[in-house]
Design brief:
The structure is a single chain. About 80% of the residues lie in helices and about 0% in strands. With about 90 residues, it is an all-alpha fold. It has a domain of about 55 residues. The longest helix is centred in the first third of the chain and has 39 residues.
């Protein structure tokens, strides 16, 4: 089956993929909800909802791109032999 270090690598990869999905969905939902609240409060339906939904989607993709870049950098450092998990 899995060796202990392989198992943690698989779990780490699954966590990273889950984080990417959470970024996309979370930012989109929060942006849309803020837009609905503003439209209801100001009576401007559907403009704020559309604007905030669009901004939420942009924020989600921006977060995904930053997370992927960070994961790629960490993978590159791991391949180059840097061990940032050890102390001292």
């Amino acid at each position: 089956m899995f060796q202990p270090h392989k198992k943690s690598e698989v779990l780490e990869a699954l966590g990273s993929v889950g984080l990417l999905g959470t970024h996309l969905v979370g930012c989109t939902v929060v942006g849309g909800a803020m837009g609905l609240f503003l439209d209801d409060w100001l009576g401007t339906e559907p403009w704020f909802m559309l604007i905030m939904l669009f901004l939420g989607i942009i924020a989600g993709f921006r977060n995904v791109m930053q997370t992927v870049a960070r994961l790629q950098r960490l993978e590159k450092e791991k391949k180059n032999g840097h061990d940032f998990g050890s102390k001292g």
